[in-house]
Amino acid sequence: MKLQPIKVPDNKFLEEIGFFWHTDPDNTPYVSDEIVVINSDEADAYYEAANELYEMFTEAGEYVIENELFHEIGIPFNLVEAVKMSWENDVHWHLYGRFDLAGGVDGKPIKLIEFNADTPTSLFETSILQWAMLKLNNMEESHQFNNLYEALGDNFKRLITMEESVEDFDEHYEGWKILFSSVRDNEEEESTVKLLQTIATEAGYETEFAYIDDVEFSGEEGVFYNDENYEYWFKLIPWEDIAIEESDLAMLLTQIMQNQKAIILNPAYTLMFQSKAFMKILWDLYPNHPLLLETSFDPLEGKAQVEKRIFGREGANTVIVDEDENVMAETDGEYGEFGVIYQEYVELPTDDKGESYQAGVFFAYEGCGLSYRKGGLILDNYSKFVGHRVEVEQV
Fold first, then answer.
1. Into how many domains does the chain fold?
2. Rounded to a whole number, what is the largest CA-CA distance in the chain?
3. CA 308 to the chain's CA centroid
4. Is the domain of 324 the same as that of 232?
């Protein structure tokens, strides 16, 4: 891999721009002082891969809906109707997600690891911090595969226009309102939500922020905060958590959708994409596709593979074994009650210290932003954020 040392902004600067999670629990910096250097062909390949994968996800989503495969991919029963309704009506627009990808550098083929389609992290880092780091180091900040901020603004406009072009957004805009919510006492999630709020405000919406426990819900009337009714509600709370831990809220949101009183972002159907079991559906529909890894509900015979929980996060409850079933790496966690999938193991690109690098490509109508995480064989909540720049060929 080609890496370039950089100077990282100090913590005071980071906190001034709203980035408070700059230090990991072990008191090591979360942001790497090196960036990955890629060429324009590699950047284009990431972009094309994200676009092709999203088309495949939509085809597979239709297959799941038509064949009622909700149980197979772990969709809680109390959200099935919400998933169906959001899928069948285009007004439930997918705002953004993030593909986690192996490869893409050093000639290694790009392979899908999973799709964080509902509540992806590293939005702030990718859209804001990468730009600031290049600027601080006197590099041309435009030399990135990174128009995530602008793409999100356009996608907010598409919530209204429902069209590829957003030039006529003003014709449709009539004071639409979006309420943005996160849980209390989580600086990362609150800052991420408030960044999205800023982008929506710049796009032309009336916006407000409220912690989720201050929001009121009525199945007949919709979503309220301070007696104000909102047409859109963005929540940085996973749909599966709502289904399992807040079943009354799952029921109310379903009723709100049935009565067409509000649109929830990201839509409920992103729970299908978020499920790691969805990769098994993809493999069934696109066997041996060059962007996919073999995935099964049963252990793969004679292959190195990764055992994952279908709604696990941050590498928890993950086991990697080699082709002889020897354990290469293993983590525990709080997701043990979820079902399991087995995915073919692929080596991530590594540096000369043996640390692994995983690409994350954001998708907002199209591929729009690249960043990396680095860590061990299993990337956990101690993995580091790594920026990038695209090396421009001199003519």
1. 2
2. 63
3. 17
4. no
